Amino acid sequence: MITRLPVAAETGQVTLLLAPNRALSRSQVRRLTWEVCIAALLVAALAAWSGDVFAPLFALIEIPVVAIAFWLVWRSGDRRERITLGTDHLRIEQLPSRGRAVSTFPAAWVKVRVLERGDGHRHVVLAAQGREQEVGQCLGDDERMQLSRWLKTLLSGRSGWRDN
Q: Fewest beta carbons within 10 Å, which of 69, 82, 110, 120?
């Protein structure tokens, strides 16, 4: 999901927030986790009733693993990117930062490229002064193409590249 924040009139600064689409809210994920755990307990009870004495033991191992897996998947959806284009620089921040450095490129020299790396997906890469950084990793292919078009449009008046 790409959110374009309003342009700051006095500075001409444009900010894009990139985040993965989430199908479920936090409460819906909790409810789904509880429902899956209850279903596992019911299946284990039914298997134990029909003679499988190890089924409850496996259910006690399975339930925490499933709950932790759901929690980790939910937490992976918290990653975001903020791309800020000022008058003279382009800044890329990973949110939450988790120790990652903020990347800054001079806006006049940033080139937007779309690469296909053989994994079946297109990747948007910003390059300037011998450095490259991929942006929009949390987006789907259609959203990445929209991001590349927006970035090319935003940089077109500031860029020193002819074939942007």
A: 120
